[in-house]
């Protein structure tokens, strides 16, 4: 599980490295989280989680501050959270999460992305049951045994802890995201290489080279849609 998550993150990071798209997405997500409660991360747990995730993507402070100030200013801009599920070639499965201020725009765009790239939309629940909502926390400077000891002392339960590429990756229930980070912070960890809430597939598949190219195009088209925040799938990309 860990290795596949790392590969996907690296691919996404390289894809977004030279664009402002990821900043715009975090701007929307921060704004929505700030509007749900107080625009203060110390009293708004949802906002704090988003800000912790934003740190690992190096989202500029100016973008964060602007989104929070917009929420404080009482903007009447509203976003709907939507989830679409679908199928790609050869048994591949895809989940698309969106934040949109125009549902009538988003649904047709997502459907077109699937149908024009060898996929098809599914009904709600047709794919998500094969994925697990998961908090993924990555850090360096600790071994897996040391990380486990820290979490045990803090009475924090997790699903798995693995070591890869000199980093420790912790998998936990989404509700434990904050507790895991706080336990490590109290133990002296100041930065996290990964801090993400994601949907991890219960099983991965690989695709033939030509089919993988088609599938990657489908994912690229979905990720390029303005309203799409996250795209999850069950394909392990082969280099």
TrEMBL record:
A GO CC term?
cytosol
Molecular functions per Gene Ontology: DNA binding
Residue ranges annotated for the TACO1/YebC-like N-terminal domain, each copy included: 3-74
The record places domain TACO1/YebC-like second and third at 79-235
Biological process terms in GO annotation: regulation of DNA-templated transcription
**Localization in the cell:** Cytoplasm
* Superkingdom classification of source: Bacteria
User: Mind telling me which Pfam families this protein's record contains?
Assistant: TACO1_YebC_N, Transcrip_reg
Q: Which UniProt keywords apply?
A: Cytoplasm, DNA-binding, Transcription, Transcription regulation
Q: Which residues form a coiled coil?
A: none
**Family note:** Belongs to the TACO1 family. YeeN subfamily.
Instruction: From the Swiss-Prot or TrEMBL record, give the protein name.
Output: Probable transcriptional regulatory protein EYB31_25225
Q: Which organism is it from?
A: Paenibacillus thalictri
